[in-house]
Amino acid sequence: GQQVMQIPQYQHVQEGEDFTTYCNSSTTLSNIQWYKQRPGGHPVFLIQLVKSGEVKKQKRLTFQFGEAKKNSSLHITATQTTDVGTYFCAGTNTGNQFYFGTGTSLTVIP
Amino acid sequence: DAGITQSPRYKITETGRQVTLMCHQTWSHSYMFWYRQDLGHGLRLIYYSAAADITDKGEVPDGYVVSRSKTENFPLTLESATRSQTSVYFCASSRQGLGTEAFFGQGTRLTVV
């Protein structure tokens, strides 16, 4: 079964609104990564989080790794049309198994 | 700097035929990966390789064969294609292995009819 779940599956927002996607694992993760895939494109690495409770920012994007290292979130402030795409989390569990989440598809309405 | 390239970009094949998808990287990364991407499943790991002549199964290896005789190439072969193998296939490479920053190719869209 799917080891890493993401919600929501789809999100439509008005340009300028905020957006958050959540990633949840049934097991503890040693690290988590986030990727962005533009429509028709390939996944592009955004960031990796390793420490419990870690928070990292990239301009309007804020990434968090939960205290228990079982969940993570990506928050985009004031979305722009360039943010359109599917955002995937990917995690390595303590058994060294690696899984991508199912992704959240973001549509930004101008 | 070509990075990582996949060929072909699009392929239509018939059920039962053998088909090989090619992947070439110019970074000399030790690790290479093959994923398939299907709606509702995200990206699933088929096979990966830690170095030349070292390969290992991922989450969905059945029906696929890989080889890695040279560090820069990692071909994926479908020995007898089935319709369930219709998918978009991505090759990726990384310096340090699973769970580290990976660089993806443009993908191959394979249709099995």
Order of helices and strands of chain B: EEEEEEEEEEE
Quickly give the structural class of chain B: mainly beta
**Count, helices of chain B:** 0
- How many individual β-strands of chain A? 11
Which chain pair has the greatest contact?
A-B, 22 and 20 residues
Distance between the termini of chain B: 36 Å
In short:
The complex is a heterodimer of chains A (110) and B (113). With 110 residues, chain A is mostly beta strands.
Per-chain topology:
The complex is a heterodimer of chains A (110) and B (113).
Chain A: E1 4-7, E2 10-14, E3 19-25, E4 29-37, E5 43-49, E6 55-58, E7 61-65, E8 71-76, E9 85-93, E10 98-100, E11 104-109
Parallel strand pairs in A: 2-11
Antiparallel strand pairs in A: 1-3, 3-8, 4-5, 4-9, 6-7, 7-8, 9-10, 9-11
Chain B: E1 4-7, E2 10-13, E3 19-25, E4 31-38, E5 42-51, E6 54-57, E7 64-66, E8 76-78, E9 87-94, E10 103-104, E11 108-112
Parallel strand pairs in B: 2-11
Antiparallel strand pairs in B: 1-3, 3-8, 4-5, 4-9, 5-6, 7-8, 9-10, 9-11
3D structure, described in words:
The complex is a heterodimer of chains A (110) and B (113). By secondary structure, chain A is mainly beta. The mean pLDDT of chain A is 94. Chain A starts with a strand and ends with a strand. In chain A, the strands form 2 sheets. In chain A, strands 2, 4, 5, 9, 10 and 11 form a 6-stranded mixed beta sheet that branches. Helices cover 0% and strands 59% of the residues of chain A. In chain A, a hairpin with a 5-residue loop joins strand 7 (61-65) and strand 8 (71-76). Chain B has no helices and 11 strands.
